[in-house]
Design a protein that fits this description.
Helix content: 40-55%
Largest sheet: 16 strands, mixed
CATH superfamily of the largest domain: Endonuclease Chain A
Mean pLDDT: 91
Distance between the termini: 46 Å
Number of helices: 19
CATH architecture of the largest domain: 2-Layer Sandwich
Structural class: alpha/beta
Number of strands: 18
CATH class of the largest domain: Alpha Beta
Length: 489
Amino acid sequence: MDPTTVGDVVRIVVIAAIVVVDVIALIVIPRGRKPTAAMAWLLLIFAVPVVGILLYLLIGNARLPRHRRDEQARIDEVIRARAHQSTARADTAAWPRWLQRVVTQNERLTSLPPTGGNLVTLNEDYPASIAAMAAAIDRAQRFVHVEFFIVAWDETTRVFFTAMADAVARGVTVRLLADQFSSRRIADSTRTFAELDRIGVQWAWMLPVEPFKGRYQRPDLRNHRKIVVVDGVTAFTGSQNLIDRSYDSAKNIARGLQWQELVARVDGPAAAELNAVFLTDWLIETGERVDAELVPADAIPVATEDAVVCQVVPSGPGYPTENNLRLFLALIHGATERVILTSPYFVPDEAMVYAITSACYRGVDVQLFVSEIGDQALVYHAQRSYYDALLEAGVRIFLYPAPYILHAKHFSIDDDLAVIGSSNMDIRSFSLNMEVSMLVRGERFVDAMRAVEQRYRDAGRELTLAEWRREPARATFLDGLARLTSALN
């Protein structure tokens, strides 16, 4: 066979292979996937087949392994059975009908009901919030449960580690979960976990990627939750990780970056719900059941003055539904006066964009707080790609000033509803990260959140549509390109 014929045969085989791959991609990729995500994957595979296929095989499946999903479903049934017998369930009969439906949706998706009699306070001071957690651990009598996306032993967190060591020394059981990929990336991470071993803390990785040990899932599926529970009666949740405000990064220190957070302390039955989320993760990661520490919500003393209703909403790829996205959409659609959003990484899906802009069009005051600068280039540019449409619809965008990264994750609806937790308003938090959010109903709590929002407003500046449309074409090109890549989930 002459070289020309060989070359023709090779070309035909390559073209046929590409056609077969494209046809298979058209059949497989859209199944169970949002149109925007499916289109992004198809464009990548059509444009660069080899790279696209390899990436799809590596990160194309956004679901956790079946045994993890089955275990989550089994635990949800246990929690649901206990919840039906609980006297801590809040009475929502007098609530607006739409809000009753939101609470029902949350419970159907997560098994966790709304509970009354909670005292919830906010802390936006970075070292003070860590000190407050340490002080609560100092009062622990039975157990301490700690779960963070990032854990580091440094000068800022030393007080927290000391409190854990003291608790272990007096016979309190201390358990800690840390996301493997994110915590191991931190400088001197080996020293951190050696210290946990030294002081006697029982700890485990969350979502470890250890294929030779039979533990593997899509590598960028992460557990992003932040929870501290003391004796099942006091808990903390919010945006803050267990690490210095600079994230112990030489690059951040060189830029002078400082993270601004918001943490909620919960005293009351909702602490038991956060404890249930921790114990679920502990069981799935370690195989250890700790039923004795699954404190019933109705066994916890309730507050009478300034009490609020709370409902904890865990979410992530362990569930068949995007629990946090559904909660956020329902609340924004139900808003009648104002929606104030705070998210460091704001890369919404199409449904979220429509919900936000529709709120503007029906006369709702919608505000968005984001950072003026970014710490992650792709996410920062993807976020900026939404500003034009939001500003044109009437969303007021406030930029929190450098050198701070506004990492707080919360929003408020009208005068008596708020959500705080670990979830960003981005596609990653909706689909790929395990998150925890807490819905709070209470005017005094929302007043406290309004005060935090006003401090953001005072510290930053408002971005106008006229200013935004003066952005150079090069920047908007990068924004659009980053937006396309953000859909690959």
